[in-house]
């Protein structure tokens, strides 16, 4: 569906240039929103229709809307990057579109085509392109974070898939997800909570998974940690992922491992990109089960030299320590995380157009 099939509803009065520039100079994460949003409606009878871009603002939802009661909702996270020549690009959007359809199937929501997914990003950016920040230097990871989401909007309290659904994209200028930038973060290992179980929704990007992580995230914050790590729900032994990011382990012999994908792990686009970039850097990527004992022992005996988290929002962020009620797992030597930094620079160089896009990962918005 080309962009011009999105109708533009009366313009929002755009944010004044001086106010927008002020926000872009220090946007934080997820606090400010652009002037417009994209919207497509779905009904059981008519399918997807009513593609439009409208002023950003509150949604009108019936209090009986299914999403408010049964959490029939999915979302995505993807960024728009400004290159040195002013052009705006996004990264592997077809991967997000594909994952959005996988999530939709699991949550019994209608599937959205690549054309509508990517078309909606383009249509929104056609209005809100001044909101894409310009990086100050090569370490600056500022971008416009795009948040497509789909909700069950039918007012009906019976438990069945909604016959009415709304898809939106909103956009928010973003700096580093973690306040400390690429300073290593402390991760909390929760003993009580599980994020996902086999057969459940762990692989889907649905609000419910994030809601299920919040009590553990609260525990993490209370213990001075920026994120929470989850073990598997069956054996309480295998490392799964963080509340909203995948994990990687770097070994001194050049291997780089991440938990293999199961139906309890979210397939990160950054995770997949790191596996490819690592191969190009002469590292040996491995996707396999990794136990908490392996982390504990590898950290102590120096086999594991780096641990890092990755995701669209967090890019690549080193993990300094894993903390639990019982212990504090720290790497034997602090080597300054050279592999995490190298992969991060590779990824950012590609995303910001400073390196040749040999993988064909960029799409112009
Ligand atoms: C993303 O990385 O895009 C996410 O959705 C994770 C969330 C913690 C912001």
Automatic annotation (TrEMBL):
PROSITE patterns: AA_TRANSFER_CLASS_4 (PS00770). GO terms for molecular function: branched-chain-amino-acid transaminase activity. SUPFAM superfamilies: D-aminoacid aminotransferase-like PLP-dependent enzymes (SSF56752). Pathway: Amino-acid biosynthesis; L-valine biosynthesis; L-valine from pyruvate: step 4/4; Amino-acid biosynthesis; L-leucine biosynthesis; L-leucine from 3-methyl-2-oxobutanoate: step 4/4; Amino-acid biosynthesis; L-isoleucine biosynthesis; L-isoleucine from 2-oxobutanoate: step 4/4. InterPro entries: Aminotrans_IV, Aminotrans_IV_CS, Aminotransferase-like, B_amino_transII, BCAT-like_C, BCAT-like_N, BCAT_family. The keyword Transferase applies. Its cofactor is pyridoxal 5'-phosphate. It catalyses: L-leucine + 2-oxoglutarate = 4-methyl-2-oxopentanoate + L-glutamate; L-isoleucine + 2-oxoglutarate = (S)-3-methyl-2-oxopentanoate + L-glutamate; L-valine + 2-oxoglutarate = 3-methyl-2-oxobutanoate + L-glutamate. It holds the Pfam family Aminotran_4. Keywords: Amino-acid biosynthesis, Aminotransferase, Branched-chain amino acid biosynthesis, Pyridoxal phosphate, Transferase. Its EC number is 2.6.1.42. Belongs to the class-IV pyridoxal-phosphate-dependent aminotransferase family. Acts on leucine, isoleucine and valine. This is Branched-chain-amino-acid aminotransferase. It comes from Halomonas marinisediminis.
